[in-house]
Amino acid sequence: MKVRSETLNKSVTRRAFAIGSLGTAAAAALAACSGGTSTASSSSASTSAAASSSSAPTGAAATLTLWTDAERSPALKDIAAKFKADKGIEVKLVVKDFASVRDDFITQAPTGKGPDIIVGPHDWLGKLVQNGVVAPVQLGDKASLFNPVAVKAFTYEGQVYGLPYAVENIGLLRNKKIIPEAATTFEEVVAAGKKAVAAGDAKYPFLVGLDPKQADPYHLYPLQTSLGSVVFETGADGGYDATKLGLDTEGGAAFAKKLAEWGDKGTKVFNSNITANIAKEKFNKGESGYFLSGPWNVPDAVKGGVDLVVDPLPTAGDKPAQPFVGVNGFMISAKSKNALAANEFVVNYLSLAEAQDSLFDQGGRPPALIESFDKAAADPIVKAFGEIGTNGLPMPAIPQMDAVWADWGATELKLIKGGVADPAAEWKKMAANIAAKIKS
Amino acid sequence: MSGASAVGTLEAESPQPPVKKQRKQHAPDSVLGTLAKIALLGIVDAVAVYVLIQLASQHEWLIFAVALAVTLVINWIYLRRGGLPAKYLAPGVFFLLLFQVFVMAYSTYIAFTNYGDGHNSSKEDAITSIQLAAQERVPDSPQYANTVLEKDGTFYLLVTEPDGTAKLGTTGEPLHEVTPSTTSSTGQATGVDGYRTLAFTDLLQNQQAVTAVKAPISDNPADGSLATSDGSTAYVFAPKLKYDAAADTFTDTTTGAVYKDNGQGAFATADGQQLSTGWKIDVGFLNFQRAFTDPNLSGPLWQVTLWTFAFAFFSVLTTFALGLFLAIAFNRADLRGKRIYRVLMILPYAFPAFLSGLVWSGLLNPEFGFINNTLLGGADIPWLTDPWLAKFSVLLVNLWLGYPYMFLVCTGALQSLPEEVDEAARMDGASAWRIFRSIKLPLLLVSIAPLLISSFAFNFNNFNVIYMLTGGGPRFDGTTYDVGATDILITMVYKVAFGGTGRDYGLASALAIIIFIIVAVISTVSFNKTKSLEEIN
Amino acid sequence: MSSEVVPQRNTNANGEIKMPFGRWFREKGWRHIVAIVAIIFSIFPLLYVLSAAFDSSGTMAGSNSLFSRFDLGNFQQLFADTERPFGKWFMNTLIIGLVTSALTVFLGALAAYAFSRMRFKGRRVGLLSLLLLQMFPQLLTVVAIFLLLNYLGDIIPAIGLGSSLGLIMVYLGGALGVNTYLMYGFFNTVPQSLDESARIDGASHVQVFFQIILPLVTPILAVVGLLSFIGISSEFVIASVVLTDPESQTLAVGLYSYVSEQRSENWGVFAAGAVLAALPVMALFLFLQRYITSGLTAGGVKG
Question: Which key words tag this protein in UniProt (chain B) (predicted)?
């Protein structure tokens, strides 16, 4: 689900530095003296941990290691137990901090100490393939059981690299108490929002969380695509083509102008001071009728008393408003010593409806398995997100995407803040910067 | 020795004769001490022997030699008569060498490689990965239910064609029709006379061998071969790329393009088409060369360097000044509530820094933040987006994060100052400020000066506070690079080395080493200044 | 309180109540005002953390009304989650933190003693190297440490990846870092004449170290111990690479999992955990304060 790897990468490192710097400033023991005291307290725990984490060098190991995050771990318990009962192989669920899974996996896989399976979003694939740490997965006839968007997202350079389990995208969250009727264009949305403000039903016509450092190209993407600008064009094989940056187009320029118009110095539909946290809080408190966000904010909104519906994404131009679609799935290490068991578990067990159902129950992300999705779609909110997703564009998995986020976000922020004389030129400059970075 | 502190005072004021070299007049160790020493050394040696045996059994002879040498050195240090300093330093230095010097050495080595995204492991790993990824399922080929058989240590794949014929094959032995001895209820062949059918547990025992089996489906290898990844399902694969080990090239089986080792850790065609997965190679000084020629770095370099120094200097100055001031203010035995004051004062230090960073960026939000909203009555001050205010904000937050540290240290330091100085001076009628300025502060600096230098060094590389609050922004106008008014050298390095199309550890290490050299030179100079302080004692 | 108030000075021990306000203010009153201002500065931002901890709606805006809701939902969630054993993390952190900081203090003090009291070849170079080592940017440490522990683990499984002993050893690599530097500065303020006279009385160097020097520098030992403990208990990067098993993780690593998912981060639970994680630090500080404030003048010079 974590789609913006660049940001992620940054946040990891900043924490890395924050805490690492403190940590290394501390520490010490006399080898001799410590022998007795320090080991006594920790040795029992440490030896057992060490023993279980170092998998046997040959194929005889009857344990699969799966790196997951805390949220998904409980959902995998049952299916892992079933696998153990059927096949006698234990699946050890190692809860990793989500943000470090990708990079730790890349570092650790070549040593043979990495996990056999990881869970993550499809847009990691470019990096994982580039570093040679992930192995293709043969879905065979099972592929047809899945949402085609999900399988397509996990296809990279012609190969499928993962078993998808959830498809995720944003939608337009609307508080029915404040705005009873759905609107289709962004103009109508803004008008309805403003009317609610004028009537005193709301304080803000529209909410979207903007990062104070780099706005939010991910959330604003459907507006951009509806004006006819994508980040990368697709190539002949249906995948994104890194050489065809789609930002520097007429649509892009139009989007830049619109951002300035909607921004702080314009109509204030977007407010650069409203962060994701503030937006969420305001929406949950009923201070706005609209919130451009994803399924992850639904439970708290409902808990906060919002009478929630999810509307299709509004269009700002004459093209469809296409959001980024993030697909989560299970990937197998290219260096797994238990490749056979890992494939058995991933392809034949995690594709079962019971596994996908249970992952949905825990995470609330629309399942990728059609059977499970149909069950989950009894909930109109899940259904609405799912329908928006069928129209979406997979998040680019190509490594070049990393070079895009920083400039893209900073420019959007600058335009929203206002005071830019020529938004189109600013946008063009951004596109040129990104193109230069990709080339180097 | 009850008058110790008075003695100390006198000494502090009068210059000492130069310290004698290596005193030798220590009394011999007590019996207890000797026994303790033998016991400890015995434990160390026992561990060492265990390690040496392990190393020997794994034939790690180079490391064995190093470990043996280290063990001998440790024994020599503690068994000989002289060399007292080494006895005190050895334990710490041991860990230092293992976990810090090694890390530095490794980073230095990385700086001479292209290690990073796309160049992550060895060439063999890269070739295996490319081959793995190049195995594409032949379009429209059927999916086979598969059974794995074994005969004389060779594994065979047994599949049933849609028309019901059973076929058997293995690597180098194309599929051929066989008569199954057993079939499942669905008509799938599950056994052949003379072969042993593998149960799932047998499969597990032989995972690598089984998944490596590639049975050609016909005598023409171009038709593809059968392989299984889970033991129960097999597909027909044809490699998109073929590796020729002798020539060390990959050939695209459809276009005929030849990918050669391009000398830069990747396979590439003559016209520059590269395969995704590369490997790590040594690149000599290339990263350093890039560091000096990259316009991303040379462009705003001076502004960033200047601000780095200013940031480090002011961070030390403000945290130290505030920490010291507060330490002095609460350094009174008869001050009520000072215990609770102190505890509350160190709290900023006890919370995770990024949590605090998040809170501060909320507090500094121009429209919703507490500072503008409540404290300044709805002012609209762009704390984090105006270049100068952003610099100020970063320093302010760093002050908040860092002063508890200085406060603690200064509190400790003040305790070791002899009170008599204070009293004597007070009787002479000196003002409190005078006492502080000419007596306490110089004494304090003896203990704190080394720390201030080290604190400067820490802030010089204080990545976290910058990244948390501003991410280096607001960006400079007029340059196309992702560098801003609050960027310090280390954040700029990070953006340059990791902000492109992937993480480039090689470049990052090279840049880190260059920065390290800069700080090291400055620190060495300031360090030599501390000599005068040290001589007080 | 009584054990802590050290008779540093007795001149005005009985003057407190009778003191006229002006004098009281000059002597002590301003200190209280400074304290209040400083405490507001210190803890105000943290009130937002506290407010978020007691608000199960899960946001952390840092801008809106404090304590607009008050419930214990986050704390319940923290303890109810069997996947994330908060109690275990807490104990792991305490054990790793206390062991490491105790050893840090000891190793650091040994080295500081040598640097401060002995003159040997390479002494200043050694000091300088210690300083320089800390300045090496830590951008790449994790990769190297991972590879190192991976290798060590093959030889001695007990200190390999996944073991807290291995983690403690990695932390000990920093024993001679900034903290030793700090202690060195302090050792320098202890008059050499003390050791001299002790030696004349027949004490060995070990006795001088343990019986003369260490008691005199207790404040800095306590400070270094506390700083180490804080550092270790919030160290994240190395711990997250070394400790793979949720059962063996530390608070910093475990809690971080609540906010590492962008967009579905749970700041409320994280804040609740952070508040609880700060308690041992405060407790340790309260415990150590008596040592921090008992210096030379505390009569510890008896030898």
Answer: Cell membrane, Membrane, Sugar transport, Transmembrane, Transmembrane helix, Transport
